[in-house]
Design goal:
Length: about 300
């Protein structure tokens, strides 16, 4: 029986780890590729736990990359949002069950919130909450004691719990609402949008200075409705919006001339029935990997 090589066995996990630590698909791919190139040059005799060793290599590179990324974001034009990890189907049947995957511990909305964590807090949170690493392994990976790792996780949870608008994700209902949002946005049906947005809803768009986007968040239901009403009046093509799962939660993909031009995902209120935040990624550099139905890191 063929025994998978480390690259085959651990690449998906390491990509997921790097993406959740950095919020960047392209950076995650680069780091994992570099790690494997270095790993295959090592003497493996002293490596007892291959998975943990590779996770350690990826984590350390991500911690270094986060320092550089934070400096780059100081000069970033407008709002910075994570790169979306998108799975979609251009032949969607309209059945929400068709788009469902396993529920993710860390959704896109959570990735946005995790920007409030320090690099080490984020590493511990991801390793424990998403990948269920033992504290002994986490301690080895980040070079701290198990007691410190427990404190770091507790601190990260407190920060995330203390933030407003904690995301609520209801898979089937979320995809149903995404489908309704498509119809309302394509037609400019502001009456339908009223029932889908909380009064104090916020839309955050990321154009990165590459395309025209709102520099500041759009605040309030009325202004958001005006934005989508304006898009409809400008004659967007029917069926331009395609349902998608975006980093583990319901979202939409917008195509133009065969290229992804926008990715939207939502944060729901406590009832799971209304949208309180819309995240709109328009920066073309963050959409280059959104090319087909298999373009995902899950």
């Amino acid at each position: 029986m063929h025994e998978p090589q480390p690259y085959e066995a651990y690449r998906p996990l390491l990509l997921s780890l790097a993406y959740r630590m950095l919020g960047s698909v392209s950076d995650a791919e680069d780091i994992v590729q570099e790690v494997f190139l270095d790993y295959y040059q090592l003497d493996h005799k002293g490596i007892r736990h291959e998975k943990a060793y590779l996770a350690k290599m990826v984590t350390h590179r991500c911690l270094n990359e986060q320092q550089s990324a934070r400096k780059r974001r100081e000069t970033y034009v407008g709002n910075w949002l994570p790169e979306p990890d998108v799975v979609y189907s251009a032949n969607w049947t309209g059945d929400p069950a068709d788009m469902l995957e396993k529920t993710e511990a860390i959704t896109y909305a959570m990735l946005v919130m995790m920007e409030n964590l320090s690099a080490v807090e984020r590493a511990v949170f991801v390793l424990r909450e998403t990948f269920s690493f033992d504290y002994s392994d986490i301690a080895e990976i980040i070079g701290k004691s198990e007691a410190n790792c427990r404190k770091l996780l507790s601190r990260a949870r407190e920060k995330l719990d203390g933030l407003p608008d904690t995301p609520v994700f209801h898979n089937v209902r979320a995809m149903e609402l995404a489908g309704a949002f498509i119809r309302a946005a394509e037609t400019g049906d502001t009456a339908a949008l009223v029932g889908m947005l909380t009064e104090d809803a916020i839309m955050i768009s990321d154009g990165g200075g590459k395309v025209r986007a709102a520099i500041f968040p759009i605040l309030g239901r009325e202004r958001i409705m005006a934005f989508f009403g304006g898009l409809a009046r400008k004659g967007h093509q029917p069926h331009a919006y395609i349902p998608a799962t975006v980093s583990g939660q319901a979202g939409l993909l917008v195509h133009q001339d065969g290229q992804a031009t926008r990715v939207l995902t939502f944060q729901w209120d406590a009832s799971g029935e209304k949208i309180e935040r819309i995240y709109l990624v328009m920066n073309p550099d963050k959409l280059t990997h959104v090319t087909n139905t298999d373009a995902n890191l899950s």
